[in-house]
Amino acid sequence: MTNTLIVIDEVTVKRLAKWDWIIDAVERAFVSLASNAAEAFPTVLGKGSETGTVVGAKSGLIKASASSEGKLGLKLGTYWPENPNKGLAAHGSTTLLLDDTTGFPKAIINAHYLNGMRTAAANAVAAKYLSAPDAGTLAIFGAGNQARFEVESLRQVRNIQQVNIVNRDHVKADAFAKDLIESGIEARVCDAETAVKEAQLITTVTAARAPLFESQWVSNGTHISAMGSDTPGKQEIPTSLFEHSRIYCDSHSQSIRIGEFQYATEEQKAKLEELGHAIATGNCSYSSNNITIFDSSGIGLQDVSVAGSLLEQATQQGLIKTIPF
Fold it and tell me: Among the CATH numbers 3.40.50.720, 3.40.50.2300, 3.40.50.300, 3.90.180.10, which is that of 122-298?
């Protein structure tokens, strides 16, 4: 018997990828994990031969049920800092789905673009439940490709009218602001203090290894999504904020190991709640008296959920390609 492998290229991904179903797939992944209908397996970190390279493998399982088949797979995320000098993207993502009944490879997906949307969709889910319903001013730290995805995802759940951009590279920041203005959003480049003090939403999407702003600049009622910390040593948020904030994460075990809460005290780690559990139990309503923090270190379960939904749509629309395997 000859096996076949489904291949979904980036052109097909971009044709099918829409914010509504991607955000929905990510939210389902959060809740499935909380209800024991899914499992997120430990992240494996590695590297290539060149200095500064990173390889991350994240995997997960959405268990089979009476109404749906199981979804099992993994995502390989890579970072090769010298790639731009070769005309290549520094970041890469590939998702492999396995047949949950046989364990054999089922589909391979060029997930570079999809990963950007999936990552940002986690931010959108957090903002949907934790931020002020009328939040309209966003401070964003970072001006790369992922920052653009973050703004677009938040626009799906909140009426973002003003974006304050903070970035060390002012050329990139100015270009980002120009793009946002052309899309109909007021945007400007400013210093960290001004950006934070004006914001109802704060998103950090950097590779920082020290806090990006001061805790006293953050007002009650502000929601913060920390999207950048995914390896030991990274840090974007001042730890002094943890003590008096409601704190959430995508995966508790992962967040305290490689995410923002690797710097939390034992007492703070004890009160850290997974967002999926908070959604499932209703423990995530907005309050103007609190600061909320969501740490997204990224779980493979979200990639599997999104990739599974993409595969279903590609199959329904006749957009899959197969190769002997």
Answer: 3.40.50.720
What CA–CA distance (Å, rounded) separates 141 from 300?
24
| Ramachandran angles phi, psi of 161, nearest 5° | -115, -25
Cβ proximity of 227 and 141 under 8 Å: no
Residue 268 has pLDDT above 90, yes or no: yes
CATH superfamily, domain 4-114+301-324, is ornithine cyclodeaminase, domain 1 (3.30.1780.10)
Reported as a pLDDT band with limits 50, 70 and 90, residue 68 is confident
- The structural domains of the chain, with segments of one domain joined by +, span 4-114+301-324, 122-298
pLDDT reported for residue 2? 64
Average model confidence (pLDDT) across the chain: 96
pTM of the complete model? 0.94
Could you give the strand order of the β-sheet that contains 223-226, starting from the edge strand earlier in sequence? 186-189, 162-166, 137-141, 201-204, 223-226, 291-295, 245-249, 273-274
Tokens 């034992």 sit at which residue? Answer: 266
DSSP string over 252-291: HHHHHHHSGGGGS-HHHHHH-EEHHHHHHHT-----TT-E
Q: Which of 86-90, 159-163, 291-295 has the least mean pLDDT?
A: 86-90
